[in-house]
Amino acid sequence: MSVDIDKLDKIHIRDLHLQCIIGTYEHERHDRQDVVINITLYANLTTARRTDRIEDTVDYKACKKRVRATVEESACQLVEHLAERVAEACLVDTRVQRVVVTLDKPGALRFARSVAVEITRGR
Predict the structure, then answer these.
(1) What pLDDT does residue 3 have?
(2) Average pLDDT over residues 80-106
(3) CA distance readout (Å), 22 to 1, 36, 43, 109
(4) Among residues 108, 98, 96, which one has the least CA distance to residue 36?
(5) Any bridge partners for residue 85, and if so which?
(6) C-alpha 41: how far from chain center
(7) pLDDT at 2
(8) Alpha helices (H) along the chain
(9) What is the CATH number of the domain that holds 9?
(10) Amino acid 81: pLDDT
(11) For a designed S-S bond to 89, which of 15, 66, 110, 121 qualifies (C-beta 3.0 to 4.6 A apart)?
(12) Rounded to whole angstroms, how far apart are CA atoms 49 and 69?
């Protein structure tokens, strides 16, 4: 049975500031760097809207903890790879049908505020 994405609700986790080893250059492999992550979780929140019970929704605090652990324990070379790992951490909750992850690496390019990768993954 396919899910109509347009009928799913969204939960946003905005501007999650974390640090990790990220980059391909030797100097990037020693010190943690800042990353900023924005996540949109797509889920059916119909039951939670009616019951007002946390058990009936996506626990976004638990999701944030999984993402934080994933990022802080990582030592990825590519922003693309880290974004994929973040998406996988979000999809651990089976209620999440789709996730959009935008991962920014501030200061990655001279004269640019950041470089970002956005990926969308689903079931």
Answers:
(1) 73
(2) 98
(3) 38, 12, 30, 14
(4) 108
(5) none
(6) 9
(7) 65
(8) 46-51, 60-72, 79-90
(9) 3.30.1130.10
(10) 98
(11) 66
(12) 29
Measured between alpha carbons, how far apart are the two ends of the chain, in Å? 11
pTM here is: 0.93
Burial of 70: CB neighbours in 10 Å, binned 0-12, 13-18, 19+: buried
Instruction: State which amino acid sits at residue 60.
Output: Y
Residue 11 pairs with which residues in a beta bridge? 41
Greatest Cα pair distance in the chain? 53
Domain that holds residue 90: 5-122
Taking the CA atoms of 69, 72, 77 and 81 in sequence, report the sign of the dihedral they define: positive
Q: Mind listing the pLDDT tens digit for each residue in 17-38? A: 999 999 999 989 999 999 999 9
Total structural domains in the chain? 1
